[in-house]
Design goal:
By secondary structure, the chain is α+β, with helices and mostly antiparallel strands. Helices cover 39% and strands 23% of the residues. The strands form 2 sheets. It has a 4-stranded mixed β-sheet with strand order 5-2-1-7, with no helix packed on it. Helix 1 crosses helix 2 (20-33). The longest helix has 16 residues, at 178-193. The protein starts with a helix and ends in a 10-residue tail after the last helix. 24% of the residues are buried. The model has no long low-confidence stretch (mean pLDDT 85).
């Protein structure tokens, strides 16, 4: 099962995957058809897949793994700049605070979207991370000076990258949305509790 907050975050993520407008239309069509009736996630996902032309298997896997598996994924992002080719090496694992003895579990299907840039300009790129590790090409030839690993906070995952890229989010005044900017202190505290960063890096 999942808490209300987790379920709401997963629904927001699915909305981002299929598109906000299509998601709203599907919901508006679905609710009158099922007024005063019992329903379930599988039924709504089937309706959404027909509306969005996305595979019901894909949507069910995306939704079900988050509900049936405890915790949330951590996505590690390693920036690789080799000439004009710029990429992120992505790897996923269960996010665990220090002392958490749970295993890694099964890989999630994670719609990873990042915001990145040089100086104060920025752009976004997305990749569906289905395996433990994958390479995500970034549509740029310039090596980014900063990276925010969850653009628009649309994905239900936490993330980490090189400490220098994390600190640059504060020092280079990157072009972040209000939600991305205000989430940074809580995000860094989360990484600190997982032992991913040292507090000395941000003093």
């Amino acid at each position: 099962g999942a808490s209300f907050g987790k379920s709401a975050a997963i629904i927001k993520m699915i909305e981002a995957v299929v598109g906000p407008e299509l998601f709203r239309r599907a919901l508006q069509d679905y609710l009158p058809l099922h007024a005063n009736k019992a329903t379930n996630a599988e039924d709504f996902l089937g309706h959404l897949s027909r509306q969005s032309k996305r595979s019901s298997v894909f949507l069910d896997r995306l939704f079900r793994r988050y509900l049936d598996q405890s915790g949330m994924p951590l996505v590690r992002m390693q920036l690789v700049c080799q000439g004009p080719r710029v990429s992120l090496t992505l790897s996923q694992e269960r996010a665990r605070h220090i002392g958490d003895k749970r295993g890694q579990g099964n890989p999630w299907s994670i719609p990873v979207c990042v915001r990145f840039g040089t100086e104060a300009s920025g752009q976004t790129a997305c990749h569906m991370l289905k395996k433990r590790q994958a390479v995500m090409l970034l549509p740029t030839e310039a090596c980014p000076r900063w990276i925010h690993g969850n653009a628009n906070l649309a994905g239900y995952y936490t993330w980490t990258t090189d400490p220098a890229l994390l600190t640059s989010l504060f020092s280079t005044t990157p072009k972040l949305t209000d939600a991305e900017l205000t989430s940074l202190p809580a995000h860094l505290l989360h990484l600190l509790h997982m032992g991913m960063i040292s507090g000395d890096a941000f003093t």
